[in-house]
Amino acid sequence: MQIHVVRPGQSLWGISQLYGIPWQQITELNGLEHSDQLAIGQTLLIPTQNRYTVQPGDSFFSVSQKTGVSVPELQKANPQVEGSVLYPGQVLKVPQKPKTTTLVNAYAEPYKDTIENAKTVGDALSWLAVFSYHVDEKGNIRPLDNDQQLLDVAKANNMKPIMTITNIKEGAEFDTDLATAILKSDEVQNTLISNIEKEMKNKGYKGINVDFEFLGKENKERYNSFLRKLVKKMKPQGYEVSTAVAPKVKADQKGVLYEGHDYKAHGEIVDYVIIMTYEWGWSGGPPMPVSPLPEVEKVLQYALTEIPKDKIVMGVNLYGYDWTLPYVEGGKFAKALSVPQATRLAYTKKAEIQYDQDSQAPFYTYYDQDGKEHIVWFEDLRSMAAKFDLLKKLGLAGMSFWNLAFPYTPLWPLIKDRFNVKR
User: Fold this and answer.
1) Which of 26, 27, 298, 320: disulfide with 35, CB 3.0–4.6 Å?
2) Is residue 309 one of the residues assigned to a domain?
3) pLDDT digits over 286-310, tens only?
């Protein structure tokens, strides 16, 4: 498959003629609700077979990014190209490349829209992680409403359903004191593990993901001890155990978010470690890409020094943010947007989507009805493909998406085009 970047003046009909593919097929593949309204710079997934139609400004490098095939392989398959200059409309052969097998997870909350989004993913996921079962200070687990609907989606698409537990306090956020109450008591931990086991057996879960955050330094060894107990109970029964950890670049990184997550210990104890490599740009912070690729790679390169690569799962965001400028610390939080929402907003505001090559992320600016300037950083097929290339380069176990509340229809066929999804 090929990634097409919409140019000024292009229509879906014209793009379909360029590739010799019915426009309806492009519409369906990309989940376009308004096929007559394309934003300049928007990316579309085109179902080409072993060929690539050169676009203005293309080079072998950009074609490599869009197809997932290396520059030397492309050049070898196209000896008719003299030198390195490509011309618009030129058709290149794209050699078939052996696919690597990767684990693909996505978190999903049991809400109506998210459940519907999960149904559109098809068989592109290895795991469907149901988020989340809240625990309390006594080791009890709060039941989830509508979780059965997500379990049914998982079963219908041959995904492993994963139970996610968190130290989120009712009506609040991740809570350090709640985690401490659990982790400092053997009795509470034993109760919690017993309750986890019961819920997993009752509901048919195949694995457990522990997402305990903001633990603080005082809970690091306690958390490691709890994970050892959990694995000892779950592994003999065939359950997979994973954790979600903050994005660190060194073992002694300061801060309550980082100090409780021991990469080396997690790499020794659990089956997989999902690293939340996003939120550099966050709703309350200054405008920037949510997951700039150089920063993501720094975290993963550090992780490789502590965790076996076949246990590392790279976190990927399915959302972006819309910031009002100028940014004021402590001011209005940025609004979260799905990729379709960000693209639709760009069309509505007649903004041209740019692509930052350093961070490998799309962005644009616009003015609202009050004359205030905004900047939107989000994701598209190019930024996703760049993350896929990093995953392959580092030889990681897989990727994990946060979260299916944010739909992105063409992502899933792109994954299946570039990888064999682990079952």
Assistant:
1) 27
2) yes
3) 999 999 999 999 999 999 999 999 9
> Identity (one letter) of the amino acid at 178?
L
- Measured over all CA atoms, what is the biggest interatomic distance in the chain, rounded to whole angstroms? 72
pLDDT of residue 283: 96
Q: How far apart, in whole angstroms, are the C-alpha atoms of residue 240 and residue 207?
A: 4
Q: Where are the alpha helices (DSSP H) in 254-355?
A: 263-269, 293-304, 339-348
- Is residue 213 annotated as a catalytic residue, yes or no? yes
pLDDT of residue 313: 98
CATH code, 67:
3.10.350.10
The number of CA neighbours under 13 Å toward the Cβ of 281 is 26
The catalytic residue among 199, 213, 240, 379 is: 213
Residues 222-269 have pLDDT tens digits of: 999 999 999 999 999 999 999 999 999 999 999 999 999 999 999 999
Q: Specify whether 22 is located in the same domain as 113.
A: no
Same domain, 300 and 198: yes
**Domain tally for the chain?**
2
Whether residue 69 sits in one domain with residue 105: no
